[in-house]
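User: Structure please.
Assistant: Input sequence and predicted structure:
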Amino acid sequence: MLKKSRRKIVASLVWVLALLFFGTVAVIYTASYVEVTGENRKMLRQYVEEYMFRDLSDASEAGSGGPGNMPRRGRAAPPMLELSTFYTVVLSKDGEVLNVDTADVSGLEEDALADLAVEIAESGQEEGTRNRLIYQMADKGDYLLVAFLDNTVMAGTTGTLINYTLLFGGVALVLLFFLSWYLAGRIVKPLEESYERQKQFISDAGHELKTPVAVINVNAELLSREIGENQWISNIQYESERMSALISQLLDLARAEHAKPPMEALDFSRLVCGETLPFETVAYEKGLMLNCEIDDEIRVSGNSVQLKQLVSILIDNAIRHGEGGREIRISLKKGKSHAVLSVANEGPEIPPEQRSHLFERFYRTDSARTGEDNHYGLGLAIAKAITVSHEGSIDLQCGDGNVEFIVKIPLLRA
């Protein structure tokens, strides 16, 4: 139980840290991308506003700027605008390509850039991104201008940043996992020590009480033979028997929780059948009928004493809480990797708020019934301890007036 708590603490810490890490990375990446892309679009809009196209007939007068690269500088341009490389395509109103300027970039073909500009003009979208090129389209009066700014460097830089961030972040998460495991161990250690001391106390107290209770019982029996029937002696005997039953259950619980029992190959089908037979008379006296569906040759590795006790606890629990005139259904089936034992009775449904406490020590759904019939709320706690010691699981299912306990025990490996 405490190991499971430790794993939950570690999982929670790592999950929260991972969520914070990836959330932070996502926010940083998104903010950086939006900001840089926004700056690029701002420069592109400014470039488009200042751009002036000179017809090819005036190319001889254009000077070194060329016919398609003639932005006029009405005001001081920011340094990034001067350092950035722009590509332009000039289109007539009829969609004819008048000029293409690739800024002498060898990896960019004029025909491909012209086709892309025509496609953008036909779509009617004034701005956007195509093939890592941020574009801006503007109507300059006599012609349409489609200007591009390459976003490849920014995307590559951001990708490199993300890769390094994820790499070092992953290493940090691994280190944090081991740190969380260590801290969880420190957190759980006092609880584990307290839990172990509690179990040891139950075991020691049970052993210490067993002898004096037995002596009281024997002396009361001898005194009863000496003086005959007596109300006070009968009370002593009754309470002594109840105390003996409680001590016996405490010792059973301590044995189930403390040590790994010796295991052997068992025919679980025969074991369940054998434990079911003695309860037929008990069920009949309460007006109940046992309905058994047990598959043959289901073999498990387990302790026969503890597994018999497990089956007895579940059947006894079903009979005590079953309604008169109804049946108790006992089934044993072979699953993929587990033997599945089910014990169900028809009776009042257990409220959801009580189901999580059923396997706790001394817990009873009816708090008014304390120690009735030598039952102290330890039976299901013992059943769970036995199941856990056999590396299995026990669950409760309620619905449609049925209360069903399902136990899964690993099948014997060949």
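Residues 56-70, 72-78, 367-371 have pLDDT under 50 and may be disordered.
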